[in-house]
Structure formats: structure tokens, C-alpha cells
Amino acid sequence: MEHKEILLIKNGELALKGLNRGTFEDILLKNIKRRLYGAGSFTLRKAQSTLYIEPREEGADLEEACDRLSRIFGISAYTRALAVDKSMEAILAATGDYLADELRNARTFKVEAKRSDKTFPLTSPAICAEVGGALLKQFPHLKVDVHQPQVQVTVEIRDFGAYIHAAQLPGAGGMPVGTGGRAALLISGGIDSPVAGYMMAKRGIELTAVHFASPPYTSERAEMKVLSLLEEVAAYAGPIETRLVPFTHIQEEIRRHCPEELFTLIMRRGMMRLADCIARREGCGALITGESVGQVASQTLPALACTGAVTSLPILRPLIGMDKEEIIAISRRIGTYETSIQPYEDCCTVFTPRHPRTRPRLEQVEAAESALDWETLTAEALEGVRNKTVIG
Ligand code: ATP
Ligand code: MG
Fold first, then answer.
1. Along the chain (392 residues), what's the average pLDDT of each consecutive run of 10 residues?
2. What number does the ligand 1 atom closest to the CA of 340 have?
3. Which of 86, 122, 147, 262 has the fewest CB within 10 Å, making it most exposed?
């Protein structure tokens, strides 16, 4: 076998409770194939709770492939590895050169051997001793530290060959997208809702995005901003079917006919009604929002109760108990923050009441909004929906 650099994905015992392991791995494999598209051509195979990703040709971009892997849910750890013949000769000849950069820059190391092919003539401790000895010879400045080595050299003897690698990198964790069904993400241009979508995708949920726009009060730039945010979320969540819903007429009707202190709440209920219709026709089992208790007037417990009362779908609010600081930390990490803080208006910020009601009573809200012909307004908005598929 010629030496070849490949990627190994380790899933350990992760997330197999209650979910058929085969289904989990099949969906994960499909997601990996789809995401690696464009980074080169790869062969994928699985054995012994490890996925092997082998470039089929020279010039596959392993750096790019790793970057993509780091955003695929359902992967707990991954690493680049060198595949060599299953002989000590080949292993000894290759290890030092393959990990030369890491080893040159370290003071301490240790070798770990895993021998899942029990027909290999040497035991794990013997492999470690031989490889360790050879590395000490090649890099005389190194010392062995079995407790806290700066570099851990791993040699795995497996079915198809021997694999040499340094530390594994942490994966994105979670469940493969597609194992948890589908839900509709209500996405604004703000900081919170993209994070909410990321968090539910991490639990294996496929996203359909719903965005309400109120032109000319909201601009085309604001819509572009939402699509950019979705692209960033899609780098984790996979392709996102997006529904752009015209919301201007509903907002104008609310302003014309409803008491000002209830504007935001009635508007939020309008959004939930429309999202409910879209979710049902697209096979979504839940709605997702970026709400967090107490963040704004429309996110007090009584307000959340009023908002939720218009739909019988479960409302997933993954940020509900989080501080803004915590939400911002995630949005920075996943790359949505810089886009979120661009200053384009959202339809929520058009017609905001000066004194919004923080303890609304449902009967009052229902009475106030009964002035509107919701059936017609809803049908009209649904008629005007535009579809886009956003790819990460
Ligand atoms: P965000 O940062 O996500 O905008 P927020 O704290 O600004 O949230 P609100 O603006 O009150 O809160 O919105 C609460 C939730 O309602 C959002 O997290 C989002 O799920 C949904 N939402 C708000 N505006 C829109 C919109 N224009 N289109 C779709 N969903 C929206
Ligand atoms: Mg907002």
C-alpha cells in the first residue's frame, strides 16, 4: 500500500441511545458525502465505529474537508491520519516524518497503540515501545511523558491497514441533521434566531426557515442579511428551504386597528399563525424561535403564553433560559454575529409601541385583534410567499 493521508471520524458510543445505530450512521454518511462535495472526490466507508474518508485522487483539499467536517453534527471527533501497510517496518518508516512538524515543536510525547486486528504479531505495548524508541532516535530533544504529553502519537492497527495520527480534533457533536425530523425556524435578522436554528439543527432537526419582511419599511438589504445568516447556519444545518413572507399589509392593519401597546404582541401572533400554516404544509413538527425569558416586553411569561396560543405545534425555544452574553458567545463561535449586528431594520422594529404591555391578558389580546380579518390577511400573505433554497 502506498502511503496516503485520509480522514478518520470517531463516534465512540455517542448518541446511540434510543436511535437505531444504522439509521444514525447512514444519515451521517449521507450528510458527510453531501458536505464534502466540492472539496474533492472521496470514498467513504465505515468499520468498527470509525468512518474512513479517503481522497480518490491527488489534489483533494483535506484542509477544506476538515473545515467542513468540523461543522457536521453527529461527529464527536475526527483527525487526519496517514494510512500505511500493516507492518512494523512501514509504521516505523513513516511515523516520524508524518508527524515531524508536531514533534519538532514539542518537548514531550507519548505513543499509544490500538490493535483491533488481533492477528498483528506485536502487542500494543510492544508497538508503543518500538515506535517510541524510533521517535526518540529521530528527535533526540524529545522526552516521553505518559501523563501529559504535548503530542500523543497514535498508531492504530485496523482491518484495512495501519493508521498514524496525532491528537483528534473535537467535532461539532450533536445528532446528524435529519435524524430528528423537521421544524420551521422563525428567523429575523437579529442575533438570537440564527443561534436558535443552529441549536436545534445540532439535535438532528432539519430546518425550514420562515422570514417575514415588510417592504418598503424593511429593505432588500435586510432580506439579504437574513439570507446571509441562513447561509452561515446552513454550513452546520445543511441546505435550508426558506420561505419569505410578505408581512406589510398585516402590520399596517394592526397599526390601523389595534391599540398601540399591543402592536408587537399581535404582530408576533400573526407571525406564529402564518408560520403554523407553512410548517404544516411543509411537514414540520414544530416551530423554533429565538425567544428568551425577559429579554424584551414580548418575552415575559404572559406575553409568551399569548404568542404561543395561536398554534398547537410545539414551540422550541432553545435560548429560553440563556443570558444575552451566552447567546452572543455562541453566535460569535458559529460565525453569525458579525452579520447579525449589521444595522438593517427588522419588521419587529417598525411600528414599535412606546409602552408595550408586559402582562397582556389573552382575552384582551384576542378582543383587540378581532378587528382584523385574519383569514383574508393570512391567505393573502401565504399567496405572496417566495421560496429560496439556502446552501451553506
Ligand atoms: P432575534 O435576535 O432573533 O431577532 P429578538 O430578541 O430581537 O430576537 P424579537 O424581535 O421579539 O426578539 O423576536 C422574537 C423571535 O420572533 C425571534 O427570535 C424570531 O424567532 C421571531 N421573529 C422576529 N422577527 C421575525 C421576522 N421578521 N421573521 C421571522 N421571525 C421573526
Ligand atoms: Mg429581533
1. 84 60 86 90 85 87 93 94 96 97 96 94 96 97 96 93 94 93 97 98 97 94 96 97 97 95 95 98 98 90 96 98 98 97 79 86 96 96 98 90
2. 2
3. 147
Whole-angstrom Cα distance, residue 174 to residue 365?
A: 39
Q: Which of 185, 186, 188 to mutate to test the pocket of ligand 1 (most atoms within 8 A of CB)?
A: 188
Cβ < 6 A, ligand 1 pocket: 186-188, 190-193, 210-212, 271, 289-291, 295-296, 298, 346-348
Q: Is the dihedral of CA 39, 42, 45, 50 positive or negative?
A: negative
CA distances to 94, 211, 274, 378, 383 from 375, in Å: 71, 20, 10, 5, 12
CA distance 41 to 57: 7
DSSP state of 168: P
Q: Which of 217, 185, 218 is nearest to 390 (CA)?
A: 185
Who contacts 63 (Cβ-Cβ below 8 Å, separation ≥6)?
none
Tell me how far apart the alpha carbons of residues 389 and 239 are, in angstroms, rounded to a whole number. 7
3-state secondary structure labels for all residues of 81-110 = EEEECCCHHHHHHHHHHHCHHHHHCCCEEE
pLDDT at 298: 87
If you take atom 17 of ligand 1, which residue's CA is the nearest one? Answer: 290
Cα–Cα distance, 263 to 352 (Å, whole number)? 7
Number of C-beta neighbours around residue 306 at 10 A: 25
Query: Which single residue is written with the C-alpha cell 403564553?
Result: 305
Q: Residue 246: is it exposed, middle or buried by C-beta count within 10 angstroms (0-12/13-18/19+)?
A: middle
pLDDT at residue 198, rounded to an integer: 98
Q: Residues lining ligand 2 (ion), CB within 5 A?
A: 188, 190, 346, 348
Phi, psi of 289 (to 5 degrees): -130, 165
pLDDT the model gives residue 188: 95
